[in-house]
Amino acid sequence: MKKHVLAITAMFAMALLMVSCGQSAEKKPSEAKKADATEKVVESNQVIVYYFHSKQRCKTCLAIQEVTDMTVKESFADNGNVIFEEIDYSEAANEKLADKYEIAMSSLIIAKGEKYENLTEAAFANALRNPEVLKTTIIETVNKLLNE
Fold first, then answer.
1. What is the pLDDT of residues 48-103, one digit of tens each?
2. Which residues pair with 82 in a beta bridge?
3. What is 66-128 written as a DSSP string?
4. H or E segment at 2?
5. What's the CA gap between 81 and 108, in Å, rounded?
6. Cβ-count burial 70-85 (b if 16+ within 10 Å, e if not)
7. pTM beyond cutoff 0.85
8. In whole angstroms, what is the distance from residue 46 CA to residue 113 CA?
9. Which of 8, 30, 39, 64 fits a 20 to 30 Å CA distance from 89?
10. What is the Cβ-side half-sphere exposure of residue 19, based on CA atoms within 13 angstroms?
11. Residue 32 DSSP code
């Protein structure tokens, strides 16, 4: 019974976060076009840490970006094969990339070539209350993909 209550509470919290962040899968075609993020040449040995967001972000979304950016800068500063990319998925120019990873809300994706790990759940669970846990998860995932 206790497990069911915890599961329901967790699902409710995620739903509340998505609504409070103003997330929408709807893309705005009238926005000015920027260079499409998928047009970048990505080397096969590069690991890209993507933080996807929309225009409107909550406190947790901002914390995810901050922890992720800081982690990449601190832990992989000497490794040119690890790149942090902040992507506004609501912009038309980023639609292809957002579709590739099936982005419909703020998300944390770590990718190398066609392989990728979706750390969104861990990011939302830890960015505010346990940033060190998120930092460790990011480092472990990046290292795992670098070694593949």
1. 999 999 998 999 999 999 999 999 999 999 999 999 999 999 999 999 999 999 99
2. 47
3. HHHHHHHHHHSTT-TTEEEEEEETTBGGGHHHHHHTT-SSSEEEEEETTEEEE-HHHHHHHTT
4. helix 2-20
5. 18
6. ebbeebbeeeeebbbb
7. no
8. 8
9. 8
10. 6
11. P
